[in-house]
Amino acid sequence: MSGFKIDGCSALITGASAGIGREFARQLAGRAGSLVLVARRGERLEQLRDELIKRDPNLHVHIRATDLSRDDQRDELCDWLAREKIHVDFLINNAGLGDLGPFAAADPDRIDQMLRVNIIALTALTRELLPAMIGRKQGAILNVSSSAGFLPIAGFAVYAATKAYVTSFSEAIRAELYGTGVKVSTLCPGPVHTEFGDVANRPGRQPERGPEVVYVSVERVVRDAIAGIEGNRALVIPGFMMKLGMLFVRLTPMSILRLASRISETISRSGKTFPSVIQDNGREKGHR
Ligand SMILES: NC(=O)c1ccc[n+]([C@@H]2O[C@H](COP(=O)([O-])OP(=O)(O)OC[C@H]3O[C@@H](n4cnc5c(N)ncnc54)[C@H](OP(=O)(O)O)[C@@H]3O)[C@@H](O)[C@H]2O)c1
Questions:
Q1: pTM exceeds 0.85 for this model
Q2: Which domain holds residue 198?
Q3: Residue 161: is its pLDDT beyond 60?
Q4: Using CA atoms, how far apart are residues 234 and 172, in angstroms rounded to an integer?
Q5: Which of 18, 54, 204, 216 would disulfide-bridge 239, Cβ 3.0–4.6 Å?
Q6: Is residue 73 part of a domain?
Q7: If you measure from the C-alpha of residue 94 to the centroid of ligand 1, how many angstroms do you get, rounded to a whole number?
């Protein structure tokens, strides 16, 4: 089955002010016809717009400073798209945030924000833009999930659960949309060097990083994701090590993963390390 044609498309990218979202904008410039860039930090979006237009003067770039955790601002974004008659045929639901540490000590506002951005905004924007794509028999939705969504992660409980939702939701609508002309792909990166880790880290906590071998560059993540939607791939896991690791995780029964987690916790409490995909005690080992 053929994939989505990126060239000349009109893409909306959430979380375009940093990291993976900004890189999507950079790699789509020169191919897309227009871009709508959404995030809270408007000045960053302005800088990015100037950079993109310098590289590709024919590109139309719209920017919208929007807090996607707020229903009123999200609704305003949708109203603006309708008012300006901006047809989005490629929705990249990328905005997201994490929170590292034990759930019992998590800031309730932070939990709320994560649920609102990672789940509610992604679902609402998809619901808003999908009917027109179906009507035009053409479109694509790329939902940025995470390899963290493949398994429960102690110390990253809410974030991993939000990403499990994203992956499940995306797979389900992909099945619903079969034959409509609308493609859906899920991007599940492992660790990527962006601002994500700093944002996810709680105040006063020492930042922890996983082994460099599992990190994939932001350029590679986005290149693979674009190739994935062009190839109509259901799931994109950038990087050989992460592909292999996630294959193992997905084939391993939950009872074994629980056991590994328990062993990991015991060893970690005794001061040694154990390479496990499930985290102990709220400590991260490079799995986002
Ligand atoms: N980096 C990783 O290791 C990694 C791994 C797997 C999956 N991911 C996923 O990849 C996506 C992008 O993350 P990243 O690594 O690029 O992180 P990042 O550098 O922290 O960028 C996050 C983006 O989300 C936007 N955002 C956060 N809260 C928002 C809100 N309330 N309203 C609007 N925009 C908001 C931020 O913009 P403003 O702050 O300007 O609003 C920023 O542009 C996320 O969904 C993340 O879960 C990341």
A1: yes
A2: 10-250
A3: yes
A4: 10
A5: 216
A6: yes
A7: 7
